Sequence to fold (430 residues):
Amino acid sequence: MKISALKLHSIAIADPPLRSSYGRHAPWALRTIVEIETDEGLSGVSETYGGDAPRAALEAARDQILGRDPFQLASLHSQMRNETQSGHDQTWFVPGENPLDQQNRTFASIEIACLDIIGKAIGRPVCDVLGGRARDRAPFSAYLFYKHGGAGGDATYRDEYGEVLDARAAVRECRQMIDQYGFREIKLKGGVLDPDIEIDTIRQLRAEFGPKVPLRIDPNCAWSVETSVKVGESLREELGGGGYLEDPCATLAGMGEVRKRLLASGNDTPLASNVAVTQFPDVIAARDRDAVQIVLSDPHYWGGLRQVQYLSHLCEVLGMGVSMHSNSHLGVSLMAMAHVAAACPNLTYACDTHYPWQTEKDEIVAGGRIRFEEGAVVIPNKPGLGVTLDYDQLARGRERYEKIPFRKRDDEAEMRKYVDPNWKRILPRW
Ligand code: GKR
Ligand code: MG
Fold:
């Protein structure tokens, strides 16, 4: 079997004005849908970061991809992957734009589409191609954001969650999300409001949902070491017992210091990262410094589904936990994440997903949005990823993309436009 065509679809999807330490989400998020066709009539699909740069990187790899056997992924990986490097400060890169994993991102989108083809060729789901499932359903967590009022997109989109800029509103947002999706773990994106308000938010979430629902908070490096320790101490009970503190401050050195100070006071809350740990040497460095106890995998930038499996195994060997990171995405990405989550025995926490922030109106998967059962995606017993494209919906996504003026995520620009004309990402902010 040979790859005969590579089709790239740049699309835009509505995204509400979510806040993080990066700034404010623009009304549209950008994605690229990758379709690979073969000379035997089988095709595969994947979803990756959007805009000009990811598309140009895929275009540049076109000659390496066309004519290849989609089963021969190992050789393609050795040609396309990033050289692993250690010792870099990755604090300032938005996930999806880190130059250290640029080729891994490109390879991942090809690998996932090829695994979809392989699954179809042998009549088995992708998680079986990966070695079989450790679980039948992939658990996801409620991913709460502080947000401004508005649905994103244009006037035709409905704002489901309203404005969420205090603890009470965050509890309301969470209740709504849990009622709809059944999530059993909760993540709050922090680094947005004064840490005391974020501490109060976590406490109110605990009061509302009880100790059986683990809580995690992720300020994307917005805090100093001192503030991180203060938050860790204030939320010792709430984040302990199954939760974690994610990227509280910048760098492995900073997180190592936070860990040391928390442990010194008998506080064993684990630290997690998707900012300081994005490649294999980072895992070792993080473990050596005891800076990170949980690594957030992500097939989109770790280099695909098999690299996530290797990562999960490495973490198991090193005694570290594994969770999964997410950015704005549709159903193709969700299914790829679900298949690999099902095929990783060492997945110790429910995965993140932005999926609740996207809408039915923009879904490009035939049959509409993927359903959750009790916060989990059930792995379909269908060949490949188990999703096919709705080409009318895809065409609408492309039309939206053509109409909007930007080709790159810029949350800072949105802040300057709507919140504060002088806003800059400052780290640490608190
Ligand atoms: O969408 O604003 C966001 C998030 O902050 C995202 O960019 C991060 O990649 O969700 C992510 C995280 O866990 O760091
Ligand atoms: Mg994070």
In short: Residues 18, 20, 22, 95, 189, 218, 220, 274, 325-327, 352 surround D-glucarate (ligand 1) (CB under 6 Å). The radius of gyration is 20 Å. The chain has a mean pLDDT of 97.
